Amino acid sequence: MRLSDLPHHAPATVIDVADHGDTDSIASRLRELGFVRGEPVRVLAHGPFQRDPLLVQIGYTRFALRRAEAGRVHVALTPQ
Amino acid sequence: MDAALHIALVGNPNSGKTALFNRLTGSRQKVANYAGVTVERKEGRLVAPSGRTLRVLDLPGAYSLAATSPDEAVTRDVCLGRFQSEARPDLLVCVVDATNLRLHLRFVLEVQRLGLPMVLALNMSDAAARRGIRIDVAALARELGMPVVETVAIRHRGTEALIRQLDAALPSPPAAPAPGADLHARVSAILQACVTVPRRTARIDDALDRVLLHPVIGLAILAALLFLMFQAVFAWAAPFMDGIDAGVAWFGSTVGTLMPDGTLKSLIVDGIIAGVGSVIVFLPQILILFLFILTLEESGYLPRAAFLLDRLMVSAGLTGRSFIPLLSSFACAVPGIMAARTIQDPRDRLATILVAPLMTCSARLPVYALLIAAFIPQQTVAGVFNLQGLVLFALYAAGIAAALAVARVMKWLRRDAAEHALLLELPSYRMPHPFDLAIGLWERAGIFLRRVGTIILSLTVLLWLLSSFPAPPPDATGPAIEYSLAGRIGQALHVIFAPLGFNWQICIALVPGLAAREVAVSALATVYALSATADDASAQLLPIVAEQWSLATALALLAWYVFAPQCVSTLAVIRRETQSWRTVGLAAGYLFALAYLAALATYQLARAWT
Lengths: 80, 610
Known about the structure:
The complex is a heterodimer. Chain A contains two helices and five strands; from the N terminus they run βαβββαβ. Chain A is an alpha+beta fold. The A-B interface holds A 20, 25-26, 28-30, 32-34, 36, 39-40, 44-50, 52-53, 55, 57, 59-66, 68-69 and B 63-64, 66, 68, 99-103, 106, 184, 197, 200-201, 205, 209-210, 213-216, 218-219, 303, 306-308, 310-312, 314, 320, 419, 421-427.
């Protein structure tokens, strides 16, 4: 599933980041920031307007990602 | 040949790099721009115990050497020795946040590929210890192949070990990770071997974010903070501004009594002292505003405000990051436009710079105050609201609405379908340190005063020349300014501004009002043959204006002031920040067009109704 569809606080792990187009600098940046296979990830909150952007915890860090950015990240729910 | 050792601090944003830099170099800092780009360059010096001088460059924070912003490009190019006019550093100090190693060590591994001698500064090691994060420093140094020093940038002696390391012989460059190696996997392996982390996040961050990022409570807190800030900017600054005003007036009259009457006296007293004084008076407001902004920034709150407002600003063609520059512009567009540097995306940055002048800056207040007091009756609306206050609020709201509309139109005109990222890190909350706040304020004050001393001073002299020459003929009956170049320009402008209901006196006042908007009030006083230097120029003007102008004229002038780019300093700073005359022309052009149309519509409608 996509990170943008992940329910709040559900523990998940990253599968991969999909490129949009040939050179997707946003996707490469996401990978540099730690969105790589096996990394635990969680959505903690969303912005007040149209539930955008998302507050995402990856590694030890929190990022605000817009839905289009989070939509590039494929994740799988971690079995509890 | 310069014997000093060149050291550059590199690291991720939010690694505490600048606090470490402040601690290392104290107030011996030089803040400028990198040649040809509007990226802030900070350099400082320190003298090591051995007596050697170390030159320390604080490079912009970067997540990666694959740069996605002008800031990151500068960091990459300086480290590679590709930036012309910058010497390649002899030693890189990689600054990492000890509580955020998973992210920050990847960049360190990437920097190792540059082949420069490196030292790792394990910053905020006190915060890591408090959270129970245990780091085996010796093992980390072994794994990375470079010296590792623990630092606490916010503590007085927190950098001594680092200075000792910098003073020692240069370490040999660490071995670079193999080309194509998976840096993330390497970081995970290093963390496995050297670090134990009881909990990925700080409890305090989780708790604060639950409240501060809450869709309802978070917005309410943001609104309350903004309200407090505006109160502070306008209420706390008032006594200081009155003090500066009185000081400038006293200085002007003292210098005036010491000098013989003549052109030189007029230049110094009426031109330079009065003109520069009219801008200096905003220093208290700017400093209070920046104190708030720096505190919010250091504490980690500002990215949260951007998070809350991002969606709203995106729909207007801006970004959450535009929030801070636009907020600053309520005090003065000059620091606001400078603050747009924090927006990395060039398109978003340009849109923010172009609409920043629409925020109602404090220089418009004297003009608004005069016209509202003269034309809007003191009466209560709906039982609670003061009509004059409502009009003032409407003028502020008109500026904000116009900014959102203009940004939206620009977005539509660009038809730019490309996606622009937010990707904003929300760092851990931190207690702002007074030392860092003081250095930040000192820098802001310096930048503002330098601008006053150069561009604003020269423009003031130019406007004085225009308003003073040629001198009136001996048999002149009207005020002197009527015969000057500025007066003639004003009278020529009258043809253009007559449809807006502006009389020639207003047109003349618009010319010196270009230096700073509120100068228009004292210029009007001059035109109406009053003493412009009198402290209560606007009090004397009130009855004249109320009697001689129609309500339609006053409303049209108010509408004009909401939009008009009547501030040479703003245009000058747009030129400096964008390095483009075309942008200056675009900004001035659209603002004049909006101002003219708004004033025209207001005048014609108001005349039809009254």
